[in-house]
Amino acid sequence: MSEIAIRPLNPVIGGEIEGVDLSRPLTPETQKQIHEAWLDRQVIFFRDQDLTLEQHKAFGRQFAELHVHPNVPSHPEHREVLVIRADENSKGVAGQGWHTDVSCDRNPPSGSILRLTEVPASGGGDTLFASMYSAYDALSDHWQRFLSGLTAVHESAHVHGGYGVKKEDLRDGDYARAEHPVVRTHPETGRKALYVNSGFTVRIRGMKRNESRATLDFLFRHMEQPDFQCRFTWRPNSIAMWDNRCVQHLATWDYFPETRHGYRVTLCGDKPV
Ligand code: SIN
């Protein structure tokens, strides 16, 4: 039986996986080990994975159906692949603020698998990941009770409008918008996680505007604490696979005008409850 090695980045979140070649179909045992490591560590990392886009998609499909972004144009030949790129012509980069991928979707993605092929020559371009289990667990009982049962509105026109997509090319003819519980229960682990993010979450239902703003601002500041985080330094052919149901992430852009390039495959998920 093949054994992979899992090296935690810290006790809270993150694990580097060794001893697996993702270009080949996984054995059921290895798939199970990776799946369990992903659920436990919330984000897992692999090095030296030289994959074609077909192999990248095939790796993702061993965990879930692949998600097609509702608003952002895909790779021209692979509708399930997003190109993640910044270079000397970029005015911004994808994911520069804390967010959960596509939380504006009615069924937001369960996971994302990002592989970088080119990293900035002078360093930089790390991705930060934060555990929303830890952010929830660190709240007092009072706050946990207050948030339970609340619903938040997640919108995307303000995030994705800048990509220049024509309205008729949007998946459902409009920018995605959804309402989700402020605290969700992870469908596989049963743990509770904070599920609001400063990228997409615009208000809490049933509150006055200033109450909603103050609550969200508190939660956005609370979840940014370094104690809930790990930070990943990329090399060419590194892969990060994160669980959007319990993790937020942020892409740093400290390398302008250098180039950072890669591809993201995203896994379909359930409606948060
Ligand atoms: C993303 O939000 O998927 C991009 C993350 C990154 O480029 O590090």
What does this structure look like?
With 273 residues, the protein is α+β, with helices and mostly antiparallel strands. It has helices at residues 28-41, 53-61, 132-137, 141-147, 157-160, 209-223, and strands at residues 5-8, 15-18, 43-46, 81-86, 111-118, 127-131, 151-155, 177-181, 183-185, 192-194, 201-204, 229-232, 238-243, 247-251, 260-267. The strands form 4 sheets. A 7-stranded mixed β-sheet has the order 1-2-3-13-5-15-4. The termini are far apart. Bound molecules: succinic acid (SIN). Residues 84, 94-95, 101, 112, 114, 127, 249, 251, 264 line the site of succinic acid.
Keywords:
273 residues, seven-stranded mixed sheet, alpha+beta, globular, 6 helices, binds succinic acid
Which molecules are bound in this entry? succinic acid
Which overall shape is indicated by the principal axes computed on the Cα atoms? globular
Profile the largest sheet.
7 strands, mixed
Instruction: Give the C-level CATH assignment.
Output: Alpha Beta
CATH superfamily: Clavaminate synthase-like
Output the CATH topology.
Double-stranded beta-helix
CATH architecture assignment name? 4-Layer Sandwich
**Order of neighbouring strands in the sheet with most strands:** 1-2-3-13-5-15-4
